[in-house]
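Running this now, will post back.
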Amino acid sequence: MSRELLIEGLSDAIGFVGGALAGYGLGLLFGLNIFSPGYSNGTVAGIVLVGLGGGAGLQLARRWRRGRAARKE
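Update: finished.
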């Protein structure tokens, strides 16, 4: 049980951080820097991309775990 919880926590964390970094990189590719001073439209759009990327990465990690559990059964 504790091993499964560890896998769940680590995969969620890796999926979220990886997705957020991918969103940040995509934002930089489009010239949207979340660390620029002030809250311009580009900054807010970059922040949205980071959030969407983190959520997508988390969902991918959960989908991976469901597939892993289905193969075990």
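The chain has two helices and no strands. More later if anyone needs it.
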